[in-house]
Design a protein that fits this description.
The chain is built from 13 helices and twelve strands. By secondary structure, it is of the alpha/beta class. The longest helix has 18 residues. This is N-acetylneuraminate synthase family protein.
Length: 354
């Protein structure tokens, strides 16, 4: 399902827990290799992702030469952002056009996060939705630049205060486009005790008219973080995606692979089976229990034909094959039309009604 179609069928006012729109965040885990990028597309599609997302930037326009690292140096030893981005900024317009074609051929939606106006401009011809990185949530001119394309926007909220999220949403609002907010923690990787998934509920409270999702940087392990996010109501989930989690550097070490994603869907299917739906009703499987575990009015003693029933004649016992105790006031004061034995379940036709 394309994101535009997803938006037509999903509402922030629908509180049912459902399978989320899944974005496999390939980022630059292709490391500048077109065949590897295509492999990531194939594996994401095979695992069931709805979209695969790349990142489009040039080192010289995203970071100054003086741009210190903010990631785990034990996993990625590059101490300069500019130096790291130089390793992975080889793809540009023609390469992304080819990746878009590959995505279309394999039935998975192409996305890429732009980090400058040039990439946003040519990506506009390739995408039906724009993703804005947490790092640009305070970048008013760039947020407004992308909003002018009049396409839905997915905005990550990592490292943001509430007022900053409100400001960014306010900048987009005049353009009347759909906005989805993704809870995110900008810590690579994010320890489980810092995932703060409760913020999903917080965003739903503060932005009731917007779809809320989750962009994850925890280690995949058993995919429980994504399961919990879904159960909290995340409608969109984004997680880094790789073909090999053991590779050093960049975003491989906290990414999921195709087996992790398949595992997530298997666990989620079980959870959704347990949840059912949110309609308050009796289930068909409970019919036998209703008939036998609920109570009926029962005679505490023999009631003779012609007797007027009083409260001392009545108690309530299983099964529910007779008159429900909720109708006790309608039975008291009525005349018995036949003899009724002690411990007999009472029926409506035993009594005279005017």
């Amino acid at each position: 399902m394309k994101y535009s179609e997803f938006l037509k069928t999903t509402s922030p006012y629908n509180y049912a827990i459902e399978k989320p729109f899944m974005i496999a965040e390939a980022g630059v885990n292709h490391e500048g290799d077109m065949e590897l990028a295509k492999r990531l597309i194939h594996e994401a599609q095979e695992a069931g992702a709805d979209a695969i997302k790349f990142q489009t930037y040039k080192a010289d326009t995203i970071a100054s030469k003086d741009s210190p690292s903010y990631w785990d140096l034990n996993q990625e030893s590059t101490t300069s952002q500019h130096a790291l981005f130089q390793k992975y900024d080889k793809f540009w317009k023609s390469e992304y056009e080819k990746l878009k074609e590959e995505c279309d051929k394999h039935g998975i939606e192409f996305m890429s996060t732009p980090f400058d106006t040039s990439s946003a401009t040519f990506l506009n011809d390739l995408m039906s939705v724009f993703k804005i990185s947490s790092s640009d949530i305070t970048n008013k001119p760039f947020v407004e630049f992308m909003a002018r394309f009049n396409k839905p926007i997915i905005l990550s909220t990592g490292a943001s205060e509430l007022y900053e999220i409100q400001e960014a949403v306010g900048w987009i609002k005049p353009y009347d486009v759909d906005v989805t907010l993704l809870h995110c923690v900008l810590n690579y990787p994010t320890p489980d005790d810092q995932a703060n998934l409760g913020m999903i509920s917080g965003l739903k409270h503060h932005f009731p008219d917007l779809l809320i999702g989750y962009s994850d940087h925890t280690l995949p392990k058993e995919m429980d973080t994504l399961i919990s996010a879904t159960l909290l109501g995340a409608k969109v989930i984004e997680k880094h995606f790789t073909h090999d989690k053991s590779l050093p550097g960049n975003d491989h070490y906290h990414a999921m692979n195709k087996e992790d994603l398949k595992h997530f869907y298997g666990k989620l299917e079980n959870q959704l089976t347990l949840l059912g739906d949110n309609e308050v009703r009796r289930l068909p499987s409970e019919k036998l229990a209703v008939e036998n575990a609920r109570r009926s009015l029962v005679a505490t003693q023999t009631i003779k034909k012609g007797d007027i029933v009083t409260v001392k004649h009545l108690t309530w016992k299983r099964p529910a094959h007779g008159i429900s105790p909720k109708f006790i006031d309608q039975i008291i004061g009525k005349e018995a039309l036949q003899d009724i034995q002690e411990d007999q379940v009472l029926k409506w036709n035993y009594f005279k009604f005017d």
